[in-house]
Amino acid sequence: MDSICAITTLPDMPPDERRALEERFPKKTPCSLAKFLAMRNMAPHDPDKWWKKKWGSHLIAGREHISPLSGTGTVMRLIHGPVLVGNGRVEQLPVAIQVDLNVPSYTVANNVAMGLSGYRAGEVALWAVSIELIRCGVPRHLVDKLTLANVKYYEVTLCFQRLLEELRVEDMVRWAYDTARHLGLHNRTFLPAKLESNWSAYIHGEDIVSLWYQKTKHKHAIYRNGDVQKRMRRLALEILRIDVRLSVQALDSLNLTQPEQWEHAHAKGTYRKILKGALRPLLVLPNGHPVRTIAPRPIDIKHLSKKAKSFLKHYLAGGLVDNWPGGELDRPTVLAELLTIGIDARMSWQRHKARIHSSKLKKLLEHRGDNVVPIDVHSDSFCKANWTAIKGRLEKAYAEARPEQLIDLKGSQWEVTPTSARPAGRARRAA
After folding, report:
1. Using an 8 Å Cβ cutoff, are 321 and 335 in contact?
2. What phi, psi does 13 have (nearest 5°)?
3. Dist. CA 79–CA 327, nearest whole Å
4. Coil/strand/helix, residue 156
């Protein structure tokens, strides 16, 4: 699991507590859920860049949250909505908190190797918001009311990882890029000049965006010691990473907007389905037929018309649609027929065979379950084997969280009286 955009609805709390929470955030224009969703949907392929450019600190009230586990920071933002405050009056007050959370970085300070768990990511988001609410002075007995049912995903990025032993990661990324480019998919790639960076390719679908790359930058990573750092950097170069970003529309269609809907995702084949959907643009033509990279057999073309068979013979011999003597009016029909056998005749057959790597990608990227995390890096990774330790640290951080001091505009300082430690009931609800 790489990152999530989650909105956690606040527990049932008095209007005065909501106003007090608002005081802890910058005095900026309040953001409703409708405005937030409209903003995110305007740039579905690169929302983070657009966020910073258009809706950054100058418009949305945000508060920095520091992870008590890793020391990494993120920003939490208030979502406002109508709240009944008494005597039939309604005010726009905080009703939820939004956070973009890189789950591995938040829990273990790096995201080199990781497992896949949309369910555990929701638990991390719940703990993070709970800790921040305590820091903001919300009474602990109110925060304890939060459960996973309060958390909803509006974007999820899954990081599918393949540890390559015989192939170079760069070759796999290049195969994906070449295939996407020659199939006419909207994508972009970079060839950085510096040695520490490598090829990366974006492949855009309707509601799913995938990024193929090799991790070479560790700017925000924190490692326990030099040996761990060296091991993780070496490991990163051996892993092909495919980040699959699911928009809110994709999450709705898959019925995966709530963390609890991810609880048995591996057993249900959910991750396999998602990866298959991300790879589909590379493996099939727009009409749904698999891309062909070997010459068709007689049984494959028996349904074709005489003109299509005539053109196919011309095409396999190296001819192009532009120099086919069969007739210009028949070309669209012939091209459509060849699509049914997996051939896009707008490119030459030699280019079709040499530059499209769909068969290689399909064989190498078959879903085999959860990502494989090497045993020697379990304790430094967000994975199933390390979850018990991570959860224990989250529970301890929540129990030790205390309200922070608040400085008002006049410079006077006051401190909210620390509340008692977390009751045991919360651990049972989050288990």
Report:
1. yes
2. -145, 155
3. 62
4. strand
* Closest by CA position to 269, among listed 111, 102, 116: 116
H helix intervals, 3-59? 15-23, 33-41, 47-54
Instruction: Report, in angstroms and rounded to the nearest whole number, the Rg of the chain calculated over CA atoms.
Output: 26
Burial of 332-344, coded b for 16+ CB within 10 Å and e otherwise, reads eebbebbbbbbbb
Question: How many Cβ atoms from other residues are within 10 Å of residue 9's Cβ?
Answer: 17
115 and 88 in contact (C-beta within 8 Å)? Answer: no
Sort 306 into a burial class: Cβ within 10 Å, 0-12 / 13-18 / 19+.
exposed
Are 21 and 133 contacting, i.e. CB atoms less than 8 angstroms apart? yes
Q: What is the distance between the alpha carbons of residues 63 and 31, in angstroms, rounded to a whole number?
A: 14
User: Judging by beta carbons within 10 Å of its beta carbon (0-12, 13-18, 19+), is residue 143 exposed, middle or buried?
Assistant: buried
The secondary structure element, H or E, covering residue 125 is helix 118-135
* CA 50 vs CA 40, 102, 153, 232, 257: distances in Å: 8, 18, 19, 31, 23
Q: Please, which residues have CB within 8 angstroms of residue 271's CB and are 6 or more apart in sequence?
A: 116, 158, 160, 265, 367, 370
Overall pTM > 0.85: no
Of the ranges 55-69, 73-87, 317-331, 332-346, which one carries the lowest mean pLDDT score? 55-69
The tens digit of pLDDT for each residue in 91-105 reads 999 999 999 999 999
For Cα atoms 52, 55, 59, give the angle at the middle one, nearest 5 degrees: 125
* Rounded distance between C-alpha atoms, residue 362 and residue 354, angstroms: 16
CA atoms within 13 A on the CB side of 170: 9
Pairing type for strands 3-9 and 89-102 reads antiparallel
